Amino acid sequence: VETLADASKKARKKVGTAPSYGVMASGEEDYLSLLASEFNYITPENVAKWGPLQPVSANEWDFSAFDSMLAVTQDNKQKVKGRALVWHRQAPNFVNEQVDAATLAQMIDNHITTTMQYYAGEIYAWDVVNEVMGDDANYRQSVFYKKLGKSYIADAYISARAADPRAKLFYNDYGIDSINAKSDAVYTMMAELIADGVPIDGIGFQMHLDAASAPSTEEMTANLQRFADLGLSVNISEIDVRISSLSWDDVTNLAIQQQVYHRAVNACMNVRQCDAFTLWGFTDKYTWIDGEFGEDDPLIYDDEYQRKPAYFGVADGL
Ligand code: XIL
C-alpha cells in the first residue's frame, strides 16, 4: 500500500491518529510528514481537553495550542475530532468538590458553549462526555456525578448541539470493546439518551487493548453492531495494542499484534456505520502507554519510523 489514508478511501472509512502537540511543535520531520500522509482524521491527544483549554480560571480560555494544531490539519486537509469537553481527568482545577451544583452546571455549559462556538464549522465531531461509566458498570463517582447526578450528561449534549449544530456529537469510553457488563451499562445509557431525545450521534470505542486478552473480530463486531442498530455512528477511537505481556520471541509477538489490529479493523469493516478507525498515536517513540502501563511498543510504526507488522494488519484490513 501507499498510505493508510489511500487505503481508507477505498474502504470509505476515515483513518485517524492522535498527535501530540508537543512533538508537532518540536518540528520533528518524520513525525510531521507521516502525520500528513498516513491519516485523514485527527484527534488532538491533549490540547482540546477541558483543563488545557481553561488552564487558569472559569472565565478564560486558551485556544492557542489547539489553533496551531488546526492550522496543520487544515493544510493537510484532515477532518478533526475535538475532545473531551467533559471528562473527570484533565479537568481544570476550578472544577472540584468545593463548587456547588448550580455553579458546576454553569461551568460545564459555559465551557461547551464557548469552545464549540469558537470552533463552529471547523470541527467534524466532538467527544462531549468521556468515560462516565465505571469499571463496575455503575456510573462513575466523578465530581460531576456526585454533584449533579446523571442529568449532566444529557445537558452536555443539549448545550453542544446548540453551540455548533453541524458538529457530530459523540460519547467515548474504554473497556467496552466487546459485550460485557460495562458495555451493557453504556448500551443502556445510550438507549435511554436516545429515547429521551437527547442529541447524540455516535459512540467511540477506545480499544486500548492488551494483545494477550484482546477480543475476537466476532466479539467486537457484535458489540459495534448493537450500538449501530440504535441509530448511532460508531468508531474505533483510540486503539493501541500492548505486547509486553506476551512472552514469545519478538517476531511472534509482533505478528500477534498485527493480528489484533487486523481483527479490530475487520470489525469496523463489518459494520457499515463504523466510520472511523483512529490510533492513539502512531509511532512507538511517543505513546502514553509507556507512562500509564509501563514500557511497551503498542503502535504501528517503530521508534525509527519504520512500518511494523501491525501497520500491515491495519492496511490489509482497509
Ligand atoms: C491520555 C493522553 O494520551 C496522555 O498524554 C494524558 O496524559 C492522559 O490522557 N482515554 C482518553 C484519552 O480518553 O484522553 C487518554 O489520553 C487515554 C485514555
What's the CATH superfamily, by name?
A: Glycosidases
| Named CATH topology | TIM Barrel
- With strands numbered from the N-terminus, the spatial order across the biggest sheet is 1-2-3-4-5-6-8-9
Q: Would you identify the regions where 5 or more consecutive residues have pLDDT less than 50?
A: none
Bound molecules: (3S,4R)-3-hydroxy-2-oxopiperidin-4-yl beta-D-xylopyranoside
Strand tally: 9
> What's the helix-strand series?
HEHHEHHEHEHHEHEEHEHEHH
- Let me know the largest β-sheet: 8 strands, parallel, barrel
Question: What value does the average pLDDT take?
Answer: 98
Give the helix level as a range of percent. Answer: 40-55%
The number of domains is: 1
Using the alpha-carbon principal axes, give the shape.
globular
Number of helices: 13
- CATH architectural label: Alpha-Beta Barrel
Strand content: 5-15%
* Rg of Cα set: 19 Å
